[in-house]
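Researcher: First entry.
Model:
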Amino acid sequence: MLSLAVAVVAIALPDSLNPSLIGAELFLAAQPHAGRRTVAFTVAAFSVTLVVGIALTLGLADVIVSVLPKPGRTLKYSAVAIGGAVLVIGGAVVWLRRRSLSHRDPPRVEHVRESHQSGAVMGAGIAGIEVLTAFPYFAAITLIGGSEVSAPEKLLLLVLYCFVYTLPLIAIAVVCVAMGPRADEVLRPINDWVRARWPFIVGPLAVVIGVGVLAYGIVKLTG
């Protein structure tokens, strides 16, 4: 369980630098009632990511059990190796496209209403789109779904992944609640830096972590 938790955290770290989610929440940070909006956005993004993860993990587990009624050590560490390989490939793709990705325009958010519900709708919508295209997320799902741990432990691992994944959003919401209208002055430079640099960080970080996870799975398989 501990080794799986470490692997899940390692996979979630590069995925947490998500420019779409961070950019959208920073947009809300510059609006009236920023504290309520960003908290609602963060809760919605966390919830959608967790719900989709549960559905995918349980579905993957059902497939595995139907094929191999008694998943063993080989299956467990094969899932670890596959998760690492997915992370390496995804990181390499991000690195190869780093210049075009770093110049991509931030998400446009129009007609924001004067209630916290708009933040929740935005968070749920963007998170729902992002989880369907996030390679680290599917690497984690493969790892968790193919493991031998119990269903409650799989749920705990998913919660851990979602917590690490939304850490930047949680931090933004905390700053907005604590600083009120002054939060935008602190967060705007961070937004500019993340938009310009995230592919140069996420790509290599994903490859390095993926190589480590892949090597761990291979060592366990051959040991």
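Researcher: Second entry.
Model:
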Amino acid sequence: MIVVKVGGSEGIDLPAVCADVAALWGKGQRLVLVHGGSHRTNQVAELLGHPPQFVTSISGYTSRRTDRETLSIFEMVYCGEVNKRIVELLQAAGANALGLSGLDGRLLEGQRKAAIKVIENGRRRVIRDDYTGTVQRVNVSLLRLLLDNGYLPVVTPPAISLEDEAINVDGDRAAAMIAAALGAETLVILSNVPGLLRDFPDEGTLIREIPRSRADEFMEHAQGRMRIKVLGATEAIDQGVGRVVFGDARIAEPVQRALAGQGTVISR
């Protein structure tokens, strides 16, 4: 069992990712595909006159500022355009994909944050009208029901809160929770870089292997969104996933190459 997370940044080759996932599926590999859609969400938000905003928490993690209007745009792009495009690509490649969000069947459930503490212009600020949270529970029986009946689940945020509201959750950490819940051997996290770079953006400085015991030391090399990917990787390992691989989603056969160790491998 493997879980693949593909990001939504600019430059990602979705057709190549889907072709590779479908090829593995055709060989009998059980897997779940989790996806993002950040770049397209930014574009749509600009077109709709509600430009994206990003905030940095006091612990140094960057995330999307999610007011109610942003949440609606987020759902439109992630659950609609991007999810259905991926399902279309997978179906065309021969995999019987089924798209669903974390809201459906309470697939991803968690607590909405009462407030988020951010750093803005060097000062601390508290934001209270934000629809964000963290996945705490995965409806693993729903995923197994789909897998056991020949479907390839294609999962996207948002999640549902304990108060029954949609909440924006990080896709990498959600994928880590799904991988742990399913007892996956490997979690593959694909993005528009070849892995964790010692000297970003120099791709010649790829860090090829990180033992979990030293993951915190390597966090200093993680820039921007890569910080939360490292966090998600450590959470997955700590919950029993065998290894996490950061791979390149701009190349042919990105999943199979990641499974072969091409990228950054974090393991116990």
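Model: Note on the second entry: DSSP finds eight helices and 16 strands in the chain.
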